[in-house]
Amino acid sequence: MFNQLTGLNQKIGNFPGVTVDKRTGFCQLDDSTTAEIIDLPGTYSLYPRTLDEKVVAEVFTDQKGVFYPDKVVLVADATNLKNCLLLLTQLIDLRLPTVLALNMVDLAAKSGQSIDIKSLEKQLDLPVVMLNARNGTGIEKLKNVLSEPLKASSKTIYKFDEESKSVVDAIKNKYNLNSDYEAYQFLQQAENLMFLSKAERESIREFAKQNNFFVHKYQGAETIMRYGFIQDLLNKVILRSSNEGWKKISYGIDKVLTHKVWGYVIFFLILFLIFQSIFAWAQIPMDFIDTTFAQLSHKLDAIFPEGPFFELVSHGIVPGIGGIVIFIPQIAILFAFISVLEETGYMSRVVFLMDKIMRKFGLNGKSVVPLMSGWACAIPAIMATRTIENWKDRLITIFVTPLMSCSARLPVYTILVALIIPDYKVLGFFNYQGLVLMGLYLLGFLAAIFSAFAMKFLIKVKERSYLIMELPTYKMPKWSNVGFQIIEKTKAFVFEAGKTILAISIILYILASYGPIDVMNAAKETVRTEAAGQNLSEKEISDKVAAYKLENSYAGRLGKTLEPIIKPLGYDWKIGIALVTSFAAREVFVGTIATIYSIGSTDDTATIKQRLKSEVDPETGLPRYSLAAGLSLLVFYTFAMQCMSTLAVVKRETKGWKWPLLQLGYMTALAYFSAFAVYQFLK
Amino acid sequence: MIPGETAVISGFTDDQISVKLLEMGFLPGTAVRFNFTAPFGDPVCVSVSGYDLSLRVDEASTISILN
After folding, report:
1. Is A242 an interface residue toward B (CB < 8 Å)?
2. Which ipTM value was assigned to this complex?
3. Is B44 on the interface with A (CB under 8 A)?
């Protein structure tokens, strides 16, 4: 509907202070008039149950606010008119000039309900337009209505009783409001209206208390009165024939999809498909992006003259941008699936199926999809948590999702598992290495579930968790909505989280390439002197120089400083450096290890494995990568928050640094102590 | 109530939830049909004023019905 009015001319932002997407766009109403259109979250009434709905209440009651509308278009589902009209009666009482747009009139007609539009207009005293948002019929008519001057409806639906009237009037005069009902809203939910100052909210609450204004009593009475009005109205305007055939089909589908066996089988098959596609299909475009940016770096090297600035561009900024772009395929694929699931109505069934199990762990039925997507990549997964309305549930899901072993951990896992676990088979077909790998995935999953369970008790939120949710009838998805969703999410990631990612990657680049100037300048000489008489080839020498430079860079120094701290985990300073650099992204571990052991820039796992195997702990004379140290490192990578992109996304989704920093602290502590326990126990 | 049964709503036992339920169309005097439960018995699916909703059992239990 919004898309039909504005076309591509729209932009996405956030409402101030909350993570609710605000979509605005412009629409040419007629030759001379252009309107700015704001798309508000859908709601049944002004009393909010979720953050999204809170925004709606605020926009409509804040006369002085920037978003306060000149005209309102209420899009109502004609198949479910009764519930959509509740909000309409509230808008009428707020004296807002409103147009009622009836959507899905065709579906309502199929189900045997026809609506007498003329009579509806007369009863409500406002214009009514029939629409089909799917194919765009009625949009022109709506634009015409909007370009004309529009008066607020003259009706008053909710009439106050004697007692409340005086209280409402007092507030109305005090804040200079233009409708009684707006004043009544101030009394009802001052705590939700953030445009009032804290003192104002307090004083309104105090005032309500003194005058025996009982919020719940009035809200109940109000809703009943409104529905009374609506019922009368519908009796007059609905022409009914009884044919509920289209609903039967939906019920039939529900029998299978919420079945106690098939329901779960189908759900897990769908999950598997999603997982498989983010994991495997996204690999092709991701590899392509990876090589393109690597080539670009090389090309720039060739073109640019030498100098620190040009090196920063070709080795810091270009790979940094590449590191952002590389996530686009996974984000696009995940959101394609999610929006199809939502459009068809299946997502509410997922919640219905999983709610009971997930609630035990402080999560929500809707947490399942983000959690499972976390196995592929935490970034799109965390962005997907927006579908969870309840803030506490959403926060817990965001917090634990990075514990799921994402695909970036896989290169680290494979190289270390291959190194320390013998390639034996158990019972003929179970491979030891495979079992350990599976165990690591399981370990991450259990950590996520138990952390969620613990957080359930730690986070105190006043907001009560509800699951009063409509189960819509099944329908085909509208593909342009799916497309919009994909573009919107990708944009949000690239332009918002992207900034943070780029900044951190540049800082890490500088740390890893610069060190005290005299040492770095002398690197070549030092290595050559040391290597004199060893008969090394040019290639070996330049590898050694790279290793020496990394060792003496700021990151290298940091790694060395860390040595006493990480020694109890079984690591030396070389691993310390890898830990520091792989903070950017876990898979960097492999590349850093290759450089530090001066193998040169190779991704060949076999070569790295050979080199690591021969590495000896100088104190004990035993191999450095013993079973204990290896396992401890594996456990560390399972738990540690070694991914700046995830932190950037969490910052965007929680609107601040508090949660990403807590998450970083928690996961690092968990990783450190678990790795410590593993090493000390197995040593 | 058993799946498939229909009853008339008489009132609510929890003020806070009742407001939300009223908004969704659970009005005293209207008919509510208990359709089916999720596999572990919670949440439940009910029909009220012409459409389907899912409720948690503890939410549904705040609705009182006649007889």
Report:
1. no
2. 0.85
3. no
Rounded Cα gap, residues A371 and A444, in angstroms: 11
CA–CA separation, A336 vs B30, rounded Å? 40
Local confidence pLDDT in tens for the 67 residues of chain B: 777 777 888 888 887 788 878 877 788 878 888 888 888 888 888 888 777 888 888 888 888 887 5
Q: Which of A286, A672, A284, A586 is nearest to A413 (CA)?
A: A586
Going by C-beta distance under 8 Å and a sequence separation of 6 or more, which residues neighbour residue A325? A289, A293, A494
A110 touches chain B (CB under 8 A): no
Instruction: Work out the minimum CA distance from B38 to partner chain A, whole angstroms.
Output: 6
Residue A401 lies in a domain: no
pTM: 0.68
Domains with residue ranges and CATH for chain B = 6-65 (2.30.30.90)
B50 with A224: Cβ contact below 8 A: no
Interface check for A347 against chain B (CB to CB < 8 A): the answer is: no
Domain hosting A227: range is 1-243
How many angstroms separate the CA atoms of A493 and A652, rounded? 9
Task: Verify whether the Cβ–Cβ distance A227 to B27 is below 8 Å.
Answer: yes
Mark yes or no for CB contact B52/A44 under 8 Å: no
Q: How many residues comprise chain B? A: 67
CA distance A367 to A357: 11
